Amino acid sequence: MKNFILLAFLLCISLQLNGQKTYPSDKIALTNAQIVDIENETIRSGTVLINAGKIELIDYTSTEAGIDYKVVDLENSYLMPGMIDVHTHLNNLASAKRALLSGVTTVRSASVAAFQDVSISKMVINGHLDGPDMIPCGVYVTPMLNETILADTRLGNLTGPVDTEEELRQLVRINIDRGAKVIKTRGTERAGLPQTDPRKQTYTKEQLGWIVDEASKDDIPVIIHAHGDEGARAAVEAGAKSIEHGTFLTDETLQLMKEKNVFLVPTYITLLDLVHPGGDYEHPVLEMRGKYMVPKSERTIKSAIQMGVKIATGADNRYKAETTSRVSMEVEHFRRLGMEAWDALRTTTSLAAELLKIEGQTGKMEIGYEADLIALPDNPITDPKALQDVVMVMSNGHMSLLRLPFGID
Predict the structure, then answer these.
(1) CA within 20 to 30 Å of 390's CA: 174, 199, 301, 372, which one?
(2) What is the pLDDT of residues 218-270, one digit of tens each?
(3) Where are the alpha helices (DSSP H) in 58-204?
């Protein structure tokens, strides 16, 4: 008996170390749902059965559920895959909860100061946190680490600028060793600091190539911050998986992105945050800059849509208490800028999952997929604003939010 218990314990530890996710044992029947099948572009009434954190059955013919299932009546709400935010800087449990309750069931970190994203990812995997699922990035591969050098004792010699081949490869290795599943670096300077110019190139094609090459040894993709075209083009040529922001991209660079299957993550709503009071940014220089950059970003997004460049949603925020931007708003703006309704929903579901290399487990309404689901009060095809008012959130089968029924029995 003691040997059996020890074996079970070691197996449990092994599964956790290998990243095997822990799912709840609950059986839940989501009845009276308007099922939004984004891939097949249909909306039909039906019931979805959830078993052990995954979609067990999608039934369009019956509302009946087995006696072992807890029935949740969705009252004709619109049921669809949870949203995915592929560019976030959330770094604490309160922010993770805010993201989840907004309908975001999966996020990809775009860097934090001290590997908080790795810890959040492990908590979700081990069943200690409902979600959202986190694809951790670790710390920024950038010339000046500043306070980030305190995140790991091995960073002490990288006081800046981090720009040699040895230093860049070392920083990538430290990230991967700490649990990063994606590497973030920069092609240009930031837009959110008044003293920097977002068009100015930071790393050369050769330097970015060292980063991509080192990450590729562990099959880790590299995402590259780039507003300016020169830095973005160098990033694409160096092997970037996605260009984050891309405000000033030329059609030539967009065409190269399409040829190389490089995603664009516009984070358009962050530029709007520069312009409007409140939110994560409030500075007169940034407000003026934002007014110039917003129409440039709109032109880039319109061109990318017309050319068929793959686009995914990223909020580029920390989901702080004062944050006013969400990926749901990004979807709405994509629609306004010319994207078809179903395509816009795919930017935050199946296409985003493809970018994160998790398209076989989430982002779709399919049997066997993780039960990462949200319910909306209205049809997101006819009213994209419905994405901003989720009434149910389920992450990995955990019922994280349920605001139904509205009436009193």
Answers:
(1) 301
(2) 999 999 999 999 999 999 999 999 999 999 999 999 999 999 999 999 999 99
(3) 93-101, 116-125, 165-178
The full set of domain ranges for the chain reads: 19-80+370-402, 82-355
Write the Ramachandran bin of 41: left for phi over 0, alpha for psi from -120 to 50, otherwise beta. Answer: left
Percentage of the residues of the chain whose pLDDT score is greater than 70: 95
**82-355 is classed in which CATH architecture?**
Alpha-Beta Barrel (3.20)
284-307 and 268-275 are packed helices; what angle lies between their axes, rounded to 10 degrees? 150
Report the alpha-carbon distance of residue 352 to residue 354 in Å, rounded.
Answer: 5
Longest dimension (CA), the chain: 71
Using alpha carbons, select from 132, 78, 136 the residue that is nearest to residue 362: 132
Name residue 192's amino acid: G
Q: Tens digits of per-residue pLDDT, 293-348?
A: 999 999 999 999 999 999 999 999 999 999 989 999 999 999 999 999 999 999 99
Does the reported pTM lie above 0.90? yes
CB atoms within 10 A of CB 153: 8
DSSP H or E run through 264: strand 263-265
pLDDT at residue 280, rounded to an integer: 81
Exposed/middle/buried for residue 68 (C-beta within 10 Å: 0-12, 13-18, 19+): exposed
- Tell the CATH superfamily of the 19-80+370-402 domain: Urease, subunit C, domain 1 (2.30.40.10)
- Output the pLDDT for position 282: 80
Number of neighbours of residue 92 by Cβ within 10 angstroms:
15
* Residues 146 and 190: beta-carbon distance below 8 Å: no
From CA 362, how far away is CA 247, in angstroms rounded?
29
Q: Which of 250, 171, 181 is nearest to 203 (CA)?
A: 171
Task: Tell me whether the omega of the peptide bond preceding residue 266 falls within 30 degrees of 0, making it cis.
Answer: no
Joined together, the tokens standing for residue 74 give 């969705």
Residue 138: other Cβ atoms inside 10 A: 29
- Here the tokens at position 382 are 């006819």
